[in-house]
Structure formats: structure tokens, C-alpha cells
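FORM 12-B: Structure-to-Sequence Request
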């Protein structure tokens, strides 16, 4: 495994982390976790040198943390850093935030959580965390030694993301980053900004939740023509590790084969290790994906501001990914849980103001109700 110093004390963390949101399960849903297969996977990851485990109180219908606590018994706890989060979904008051941390220590069967994040910070949840003083509670728990490094994760766009970077003395942040999403959410500019402010950057969804590992998407021909025998997953991971700003890449591996491949790629990749030709292949792969999208929004944002507050370009990005992903849950999750309620397509009143400003002549007022119907939780 490859390691990099992380945080103020330079703790050496593996460049590949195990995301405990997509562990093997029995059946089709998020739970119950298949404990036998998941323990084998998690321990194999640690044996291969992975020492960053990422969980949250919401993963696997609330069972991921207690699973991780159990899987680390028998000498594994000491070998890893555990990252978990304060999720807005689990707390509605300051007292509940305080209680959550204590519950998490119990569930994880540990006296110290190495990395603690405000989870999935949106404009709405940031207001809540601010009002209840969540960071004050977190800093107090850090002083008592219950928590270690403090960070946040967010799927918000670069402008708000940069405000978040500046809003606290964070040790790290977690962003979605891969070649298909390099210009959305925090994107490249957010990545560079966070790094320039001294934050470690942890990447989530490096394969877009598995979409960029598929072998039936339009990028496939480009990869085949490249002459490389890299899988689509390997292309994506190598591209991320090529960036010097990245500290850890989390992947939700759920088979031993995926784990072994990603560990090998972690060892063989690194900043500046992709040649100009490889980078061109990635550009072409992204172009092939972009051409296959359903709504030709260029993200210019001329449509904004929407009088009702709808984040129109974001809605199109979610929708395009939803369609391209063949109904993968990503688009729905992003819409319902990672977008402020006031910015969702369901708020569109079809006034058409944006259509007069859209250089692509998109029928926004017709598309928004459709997007809400397909992605909204009650749609
Ligand atoms: N803080 C937040 O808001 C937030 C949000 C999202 C994720 N996360 C964290 O970030 C972690 C990583 O995100 P993610 O799980 O979406 O990661 P990801 O690597 O983008 O997607 C994981 C999926 O990719 C596929 N995969 C992984 N390696 C592969 C390989 N070598 N070959 C083929 N397919 C491969 C598997 O899909 P199949 O299941 O289809 O095989 C796996 O389930 C999560 O587990 C979670 O801990 C945090």
C-alpha cells in the first residue's frame, strides 16, 4: 500500500480507504449486512494495508457503524483510523448532537474516533449545524480526546464549498471527485482551493458509485482504442491519484476482486504518473459521456437566479447522471438528501423567466416537473 502523511501530526494514512456504505448485503437493499462476507472483506483490506475506514450513522440503514465496531475486534481496531460523521438526518437538536457522538463511540466500540465529519453539508444543514453549535460540541469532544481530526463532506457547488472551507479551522474535507465530475460540485477549483488552505482532501465516489466501472457506457470504445489493458475503474482511479492534491480515495468495494484491483492500482499510481496521451484518453472518455447526456445544459448558469430559487444547472446534472446511470440511486439520493429543499426542481412554477436567458434554448419549465417526478422522493 502507499501512504501519505495526513493532518497536523502527519499520521500516515493509506491512499485508498474503504467506504463502509456499500458492504456486501443479504438481498437487494442496504441491509442486512452480510457480516461474514463483510468481515472477510474489511479484514482483508486491513491486511492489504488499507488503514482508513469511512462510515456514517446513516449507512446500511443505520447498521454500518456497529458492524465496523464488531469487525475491528480482535486486534484490527489499532491498525486503522476510523472516520464517521454527524448526519443531519440523525439529529434535530444540540442535545441530540451531543448524544450522537456518545452513541457512535459505543457503536464503534472505541474510546476515540480518529476523523469526524459534518456529513453531507448543504446550505440547509449548515444553517442547522450553525444554530445548534455542532462544531462547538465537536471541538469539546476533541478536547476530551473522544474525537481526532475534524472535517466536513459536501456535494455543494464550488462557491458554497469554498465558503465552508473558510468557515472553520478544518483538518480535512471530503468531496466527490472523478473525471466525469471534475467540473461539478466542489470540482477541480474546490479541490485546489481546499488544498491551498491546508485541508487534506478525501475523495468519495471515485467511480461515481460504480457507474464509471461499467463496461457498457460510451467511454468504453475510447478505453479499448487506447491500447492499455486498464479496466474502466482503473482509468478513473489512476486519473484521481494523478492529482497531487488528493490525500485519500475512498472506494465502496464490495468484492475481494474489486479490493485487490484497487489496492494494486493504488500502488501503481501517483501524482504525475499519467502521461499526456493517457490524459487525452480521459478527456475523450469524458466527452463521450457528455455527448450521451439527455439535456444539453452546458452549466453556464445564465438561467440563474431563478425567482423560486431552483438550482437549474444542478438539476440538469443530477438528471443527466440519473438517465446515464440507468436508474442508479445516485441521482435520487443527491436530489433528496444532498440538495437544499429550496433548490429542488419541485419548486419550479414554470414561469419561463429562465428560458428567455438560456443560450441552449432548453425548455426548463417542461423539464423541471419531469425531473421532480423522476427524482423526488414522493415522485
Ligand atoms: N460523505 C458523504 O456524503 C458520502 C457520500 C457518498 C459516499 N461516501 C463515502 O465514500 C465512499 C466511497 O464512495 P462510493 O462507495 O460511491 O465509491 P465508488 O468507488 O465510486 O463506488 C463503489 C462501487 O464501485 C464499484 N467498484 C469499486 N471498485 C471496483 C472495481 N475495481 N471494479 C469494478 N467495480 C468497482 C462497486 O460497484 P458494484 O456494487 O456495482 O459492484 C462499488 O459498489 C462510500 O462508501 C462512503 O463511505 C460519503
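FORM 12-B RESPONSE
SEQUENCE OUT:
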Amino acid at each position: 500500500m502507499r501512504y501519505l502523511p495526513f493532518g497536523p501530526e502527519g499520521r500516515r494514512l493509506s491512499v485508498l480507504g474503504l467506504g463502509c456504505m456499500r458492504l456486501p448485503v443479504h438481498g437487494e437493499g442496504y441491509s442486512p449486512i452480510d457480516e461474514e462476507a463483510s468481515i472477510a472483506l474489511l479484514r482483508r483490506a486491513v491486511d492489504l494495508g488499507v488503514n482508513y475506514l469511512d462510515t456514517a450513522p446513516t449507512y446500511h440503514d443505520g447498521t454500518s457503524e456497529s458492524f465496523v465496531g464488531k469487525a475491528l475486534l480482535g486486534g484490527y481496531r489499532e491498525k486503522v483510523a476510523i472516520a464517521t460523521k454527524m448526519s443531519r438526518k440523525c439529529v434535530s437538536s444540540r442535545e441530540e448532537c451531543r448524544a450522537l457522538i456518545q452513541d457512535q463511540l459505543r457503536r464503534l466500540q472505541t474510546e476515540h474516533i480518529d476523523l469526524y465529519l459534518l456529513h453531507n453539508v448543504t446550505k440547509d444543514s449548515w444553517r442547522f449545524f450553525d444554530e445548534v453549535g455542532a462544531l462547538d460540541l465537536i471541538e469539546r469532544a476533541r478536547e476530551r480526546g473522544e474525537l481526532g481530526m475534524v472535517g466536513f463532506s459536501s456535494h455543494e457547488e464550488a462557491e458554497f464549498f469554498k465558503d465552508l472551507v473558510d468557515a472553520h479551522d478544518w483538518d480535512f474535507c471530503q468531496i466527490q471527485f472523478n473525471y466525469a465530475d471534475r467540473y461539478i460540485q466542489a470540482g477541480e477549483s474546490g479541490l485546489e482551493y481546499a488544498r491551498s488552505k491546508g485541508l487534506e482532501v478525501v475523495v468519495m465516489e471515485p467511480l461515481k458509485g460504480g457507474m464509471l466501472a461499467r463496461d457498457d457506457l460510451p467511454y468504453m470504445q475510447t478505453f479499448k482504442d487506447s491500447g492499455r489493458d486498464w479496466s474502466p475503474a482503473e482509468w478513473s482511479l489512476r486519473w484521481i491519484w494523478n492529482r497531487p492534491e488528493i490525500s485519500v480515495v475512498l472506494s465502496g468495494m464490495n468484492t475481494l476482486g474489486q479490493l485487490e484491483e484497487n489496492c494494486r492500482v493504488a500502488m501503481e499510481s501517483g501524482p504525475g504518473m499519467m502521461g499526456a496521451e493517457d490524459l487525452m484518453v480521459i478527456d475523450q472518455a469524458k466527452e463521450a459521456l457528455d455527448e450521451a447526456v439527455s439535456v444539453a445544459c452546458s452549466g453556464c448558469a445564465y438561467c440563474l437566479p431563478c425567482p423560486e430559487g431552483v438550482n437549474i444547472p444542478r438539476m440538469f446534472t443530477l438528471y443527466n447522471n440519473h438517465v446515464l446511470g440507468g436508474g442508479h440511486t445516485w441521482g435520487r439520493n443527491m436530489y433528496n438528501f444532498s440538495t437544499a429543499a429550496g433548490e429542488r426542481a419541485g419548486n419550479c412554477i414554470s414561469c419561463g423567466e429562465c428560458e428567455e436567458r438560456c443560450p441552449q434554448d432548453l425548455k426548463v419549465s417542461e423539464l423541471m416537473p419531469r425531473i421532480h417526478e423522476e427524482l423526488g422522493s414522493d415522485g
